[in-house]
Design brief:
Layout: H1 16-23, H2 27-32, H3 34-46, H4 63-74, H5 80-89, E1 90-93, E2 96-99, E3 103-106, E4 109-112, H6 116-128, E5 134-136, E6 141-142, H7 153-157, H8 159-177, H9 180-188, H10 192-210, H11 216-224, H12 226-236, H13 238-251, H14 256-268, H15 276-290, H16 295-308, H17 313-326, H18 331-343, H19 347-360, H20 365-377, H21 381-393, H22 401-414
Antiparallel strand pairs: 1-2, 3-4, 3-5, 5-6
Helix pairs in contact: 1-3, 3-14, 4-5, 4-8, 5-10, 8-9, 9-10, 10-15, 12-13, 12-14, 13-14, 14-15, 15-16, 17-18, 18-19, 19-20, 20-21, 20-22, 21-22
Length: 441
């Protein structure tokens, strides 16, 4: 239904002492497969119950209450609509990660506003500027694909109306497909690949953040049961280990330990490219659970990089574009796309991803300057001037003296030349050749 620039992060707390106790019974698993071990630690930490209270909802809007009513009215599986909402409009707050009612998304750019009034003003402005597809509210309902859903911008942002429409739509997709998992995928996209990746993210939110917390004993049993048995096979029989992890994933499709294990087993059995799908899902799952800077996300990205680096440039660009389309707030895929695009002569693509990096790091002056140089090279002098001026407008610490001089030189080179004085002609009406008029007179 909507692109999702800001997927959910977990309600994670650093339960250090508890985690230390959980690691001991899982030591064999950790020693057998260090890559899987990172995920085991993450999961055992996640099993601890969160004790921080949720923040009070805005006075004029409450996604959580509206979602609960809509789920009950449409008889949806418990917390399924909430998992979709967290994937669509989730916002990190001081007291947890919550769906946010005053969220807009236009052309992949997510906006979290502080009030209904501010969100309405932004939506009116965006429509006035020519935007056609704006995703609204708790459930990010698209104005382009659901034009009859609401009568006004105010209605589109109303949590009760927004969630009620999304719940009805999700129920209708279930009636079409006969599967809640397929309904979730179709909620985002009818495209099998995009919808499938989105489904994994929602299921990860449903299982990881919303499901009942596992006890210490349950988590240890899980890690020392089929997952430990599979991990013991990785060194001696990686093909059998991959099959074992695959059977576990059939029932637990978003389990990061199993995804990491099967990917490693496939790589050790000489099926590196077959592991790509698991590593991609592992990376996306880590992003949605813990964010771009988390250790497990960095490790998942490093594993993914090894396979991406072996691909032809055109195929790698295609896969990186897919990742940034699903999750646009990790710098690493954008940076790689800039490098590959410049190397292959695709300056417009490089500029687009430089601008994405500017959005993620608005105080890094060098990004503006690099983008300005690319814009000038493709002939977009207006954009180049704008970027150079933005670089110079940053605080002094954001741009070193050399870069500041380069930005000034770029602006000077792009400044229009002063008009040349008119040259007086010696020609007079008497000696000026007569040209024929259209009428021949």
């Amino acid at each position: 239904m909507a692109r999702t620039p800001y997927p959910p992060y977990p309600l994670f707390r650093p339960w250090r002492k508890w985690l230390a106790g959980c690691i001991r019974p899982c030591r064999v698993l950790l020693l057998t497969c260090g890559f899987i071990g990172v995920w085991a630690m993450v999961l055992t930490a996640r099993a601890a119950p969160a004790t921080a209270p949720l923040p009070a909802p805005p006075l004029d809007g409450n996604c959580l209450a509206a979602i609960a009513r809509a789920e009950q009215a449409e008889r949806l599986p418990q917390n399924l609509l909430l998992a979709v909402a967290l994937t669509e409009s989730g916002r990190r707050t001081q007291n947890g990660f919550l769906p946010w009612p005053w969220t807009l998304n236009v052309d992949g750019r997510g906006l979290y506003l502080d009030s209904r009034q501010e969100a309405e003003r932004w939506a009116e402005r965006l429509f006035a500027e020519g935007a056609r597809n704006i995703d609204f509210g708790c459930m990010q309902v698209s104005s382009l694909y659901h034009p009859q859903a609401f009568l006004s911008i105010r209605q589109a942002l109303d949590p009760a109306l927004n969630t009620a429409y999304a719940a009805r739509f999700l129920r209708s997709l279930y009636q079409q497909t006969g599967s809640w998992e397929q309904a979730v995928a179709r909620y985002h996209s009818a495209d099998t690949e995009r919808g499938g990746a989105y489904r994994q993210r929602v299921l990860a939110a449903l299982r990881g953040d919303l499901g009942p917390a596992q006890t210490y004993a349950e988590e240890v049993e899980r890690l020392q049961g089929p997952l430990l048995a599979a991990s013991r096979l990785i060194s001696s029989d990686p093909a059998a280990a991959a099959d074992s992890f695959g059977r576990y994933l059939a029932d637990h499709p978003a389990d990061p330990v199993a995804l990491a294990g099967r990917a490693l087993a496939l790589q050790r059995s000489g099926q590196g490219q077959a592991a790509y799908g698991d590593l991609e899902n592992l990376y996306l799952s880590s992003l949605t659970r813990a964010g771009p800077s988390a250790p497990q996300t960095r490790q998942a990205w490093q594993q993914l990089v090894r396979l991406l680096g072996s691909l032809p440039v055109a195929e790698r660009i295609k896969r990186l574009e897919y990742l940034t389309g699903l999750y646009g707030d990790d710098s690493r895929p954008h940076e790689w796309l800039v490098r590959d695009s410049l190397a292959s002569g695709d300056d417009p693509r490089a500029l687009r991803h430089k601008q994405a990096l500017i959005r993620l790091h608005p105080k890094e002056g060098r990004l503006y300057l690099d983008a300005a140089v690319i814009a000038r090279r493709i002939g977009d002098h207006t954009q180049a001037q704008t970027l150079a001026r933005q670089a110079l407008a940053l605080p002094a610490a954001a741009l070193n003296d050399s870069d500041r001089q380069q930005a000034q030189a770029l602006l000077h080179a792009l400044a229009p030349s002063p008009a040349s004085p008119a040259v007086k002609s010696d020609a007079s009406p008497a000696n000026t050749p007569r040209t024929a008029s259209p009428s021949g007179g």
